[in-house]
Amino acid sequence: MNGVLARVRRSVSWRGRSASVRLGVAIVVLFLVGSLVSLVWTPYPPGALATGDFNAPPSGDHPFGTDAAGGDVFSQTLVATTTDVWITLAVVTLSLVVGTLWGSAIGFRGGWPDALTLRVLQVMNSFPSLLLAMLVISTLGRGLVNVILVVALIPLPDYIRLARAEVMTKKTWQFAEAARIIGRRPVGVLFRHLVPNSTRPLLTYAAVNGSWVVATVGALGFLGLGIQPGSAEWGSMIAGGQTGIVSGQWWISLFPGLGIFLLAWALHLIADGATDDDLVRRGY
C-alpha cells in the first residue's frame, strides 16, 4: 500500500511540473540514453578512417556525413556525447557536494572560518572563469581528471555562498530551534535539518551551472585544452571541422555544436521551470 501511494505522489508531482521542466528532462534523458548506447554500439568505429567518401555530406549511410579522413561524424558525435554528458555530471556533482558542505558549515559556524572563506572566494572570483580554467589546465596538463577538477573549482564559490546564505537564514527558524530544544547536537541540527531544507535553490542553481559546464568544456576542447588529443569530444570536433565551414563542409562542426546547444538549453529549461514551480508553490 505504501508503495502504491508513493508512486501516486510521484505521478502527481511530475504532472504538476511546468512544461519547460518536462521538456528539459526529456532532452537530458535522450542524451543519457545516447551516451549509454554509444558504450555498446555505434554505426562505425568512432576512430575508423575511410568509412565512406571523404567530406561526404549527410546521407543514408552516414546521417551526419563524413569528415576529411572519411570518418563517420554520427559515430564520433555519439561517442562524444558520453564524454561531455558524464564530464558535466561529474563536475556539477562535485561542485554541488563540496560547495553545499563547505557553505553550510561556515554558515552554521560563523566566526573566522566564515570570514577567511569569504576572502578566498573574493580572490577566486577576481579572475575571469574561462581564463582561469585555461591557465590552470595549461599548468597541470590536459586530461579527463584535470578538466573535471578545474571546471568544478570555478563555480564552487557560488555554491558556497548560496549554501551559506540558506543556512544562515534558516538556522534561527522554528524547526531548527525545536531540534536544539529536544537535544539535537549541532552537527545533527546542521545535517539532519538545515541542509535538507536548503537544497532546493542549490539544485536549481546546479541545473544553471550545468549549462555553463557544457559550454566551458566545449570551449576548452575547441581551444585544444580539453581531454587527451584523439578522444571524441564535442569542442574538439568543432575545432577539427572549422576549416571546412568556408569550403562547404558545414556538417562536421554543426552536429557537435548542436549537441552543446541542446544540452545547455535543456538544463536552462529545467532550472527556469523549477524556479517558476517554486514561486507558484510559495504563492507568488
How would you characterize this protein structure?
With 284 residues, the protein is mostly helical. The chain is built from 12 helices and no strands. The chain has a single domain (19-281), classed as Orthogonal Bundle (MetI-like fold). Helix 3 (73-109) crosses helix 10 (199-222) and helix 11 packs across helix 12. It is elongated, with a radius of gyration of 22 Å.
Please give a handful of descriptors for the protein shown.
284 residues, MetI-like fold, disordered N terminus
Average pLDDT reading: 87
Largest sheet, strands/sense/barrel: none
The helix content, as a percent range, equals over 70%
Write out the CATH superfamily name. MetI-like
Please compute the radius of gyration using only Cα atoms. 22 Å
CATH T-level fold name: MetI-like fold
CATH class wording = Mainly Alpha
- How many β-strand runs? 0
Low-confidence residue ranges: 1-14
Summed up, what is this model?
This protein is mainly alpha-helical and 284 residues long. It has 12 helices and no strands.
